[in-house]
Amino acid sequence: MNQLGIFKEKWEKQYPTAIRSWEENWDILSTYFDYPVEIRKIIYTTNAIEGLNRQFRKVTKTKTVFPNDDSLRKMLYLAIQNLSSKWTQRCRNWDLIQNQLMIMEMAEG
């Protein structure tokens, strides 16, 4: 029995809709496992993304309308510049992850 089958056996009674969705979309979902463990961890770890989105909302909530898309882009760019000065910690194993991504890119191209 494969891992999806073991997972299904354990959780199908409690989460039948989720299991059905996984089975129907397994060809798409399983591409996640093509990535090395370090990259997969970044994919499923969303705290940094949620924090960035929270800061974007904070910056844009007082201004309800932007004259054009460029003005919004500029405001978000400036917010990123301000936030990035506060980021002190690199992603764990970042050098390894960069190398893995470059190898994957070379294999595709």
Report on this model:
With 109 residues, the chain is an all-alpha fold. Helices cover 69% and strands 0% of the residues. The protein is built from seven helices and no strands. Helix 5 packs across helix 6. The longest helix has 16 residues. The two termini are 35 Å apart. The model has no long low-confidence stretch (mean pLDDT 87).
Give the arrangement of secondary structure elements:
Layout: H1 3-11, H2 16-24, H3 26-29, H4 37-44, H5 47-60, H6 69-84, H7 94-108
Number of strands: 0
**What characterizes the major β-sheet?**
none
Global morphology: extended
Q: How far apart lie the N and C ends?
A: 35 Å
Label the structural class.
mainly alpha
Q: How many H/I helices?
A: 7
Concise account of the structure shown:
The protein is mainly alpha-helical. The chain has helices at 3-11, 16-24, 26-29, 37-44, 47-60, 69-84, 94-108.
